[in-house]
Design brief:
By secondary structure, this protein is α/β, with parallel strands linked by helices. It folds into 2 domains: about 180 residues, Quinone Oxidoreductase, Chain A, domain 1 (Alpha-Beta Complex); about 130 residues, NAD(P)-binding Rossmann-like Domain (Rossmann fold, 3-Layer(aba) Sandwich). The protein is about 30% helix and about 25% strand. It contains 12 helices and 17 strands. Strands 3, 4, 5, 8, 9, 16 and 17 form a 7-stranded mixed β-sheet that branches. Helix 6 links the parallel strand 11 and strand 12. Helix 4 crosses helix 5, helix 4 packs across helix 10 and helix 7 runs parallel beside helix 8. It binds nicotinamide-adenine-dinucleotide and zinc ion (ZN) (2 copies).
Length: about 350
Amino acid sequence: MPTNRRIVVTGVRTMEMREEQTPTPAPGEVRARSTYVGVCGSDTHAFHGRHPFIPIPYLPGHEATGVVEELGAGVTSVAVGDRIVVEPTLPCWNCKPCRTGSENLCENLQFFGCGYPSGGMADQFVVRADRLHVVPDDISDLGAALIEPLSTPVHAGRITGPLQGRAVAVLGAGTIGLLMLAVARWSGAAKVVVTDPLPGKREKALKLGADAVVDATAPDVAAQVRAALGESADVVFDCVAVRSTTLAAIDMALKGGTVAIVGVPSADFELPISIMQDQQIRVQGCATYVSQDFATAIEMIRTGAVRAEDFITAQFPLEEAEQAFDASTSGAHIKVLIHP
Ligand SMILES: NC(=O)c1ccc[n+]([C@@H]2O[C@H](COP(=O)([O-])OP(=O)(O)OC[C@H]3O[C@@H](n4cnc5c(N)ncnc54)[C@H](O)[C@@H]3O)[C@@H](O)[C@H]2O)c1
Ligand SMILES: [Zn+2]
Ligand SMILES: [Zn+2]
């Protein structure tokens, strides 16, 4: 008897809810019952056939939280009943990046919920036990759903930091950009200026502590950001990564600043390499997170530096996953969750 419902993206802009057998955990794995599963920019890019590394069909759900229900053989790191959040990177632990603390760059990386034969957008899922973090009692289920999204900006801030005392620009005030703002504030940045084309997103950035916001559609967006910062940006977090944002980011960072590519580009484009050489611009790719970033994200949520009610704006049942994806790209929401 099929006892598990699962969302499958079967084609560009098409998904279905399938019934399957309850999955059984292999040795080293657990079976968890989903609590909240986030819809991410990467999910909606993939759903629209625009993600460079997620082929369709795919089983979504990398922002997965749940409660452990069954342990596979040999699992001792978690117990039945534990509330968990999945760190969805699935490293091999053998290659050079894995052996040197950069398992996000694993040469054999697989990614739970992103092109992997399993994901969390289901009533229940199985996942490797070594990829779980136990959620502390003083973090709510909704707070737990922000741990994975927050870990990306934590990582980006850590590898381009320290941000203490620095002039920071954040391009794009979606979930990632607004969490990036929170990380910059928490890290002690001197000034943070945020851009977005949508007035509602800019307003939200101001509410969450941006010193100033700039309309991203303005032709002189870089000049306006520099004026609002009062100087060039030490670090620009490009949380969109289309040609116009990355070129503007380079303009903001002149001279000597860092441009962090946090958004997933849906296409390649040319960069002004002669200006980057002459004006000593550093471009830093930012790929997800490692375990210590999850630990920092957990601490930020536990201490109230990031509050679920500021970020989670909609919840949908599993059978309305498509509406959840649409809501996520509507511009009217920040983090949209699916509640199986
Ligand atoms: N590097 C990583 O490991 C990683 C992890 C998660 C997500 N991402 C990527 O980060 C990006 C943001 O994700 P999200 O969940 O916040 O998406 P989102 O759709 O919630 O937010 C994107 C925001 O950018 C704004 N925007 C669009 N064009 C803009 C422009 N020209 N200038 C400024 N802002 C603009 C939109 O109005 C929106 O508010 C996506 O590309 C996603 O795939 C990367
Ligand atoms: Zn995500
Ligand atoms: Zn590896």
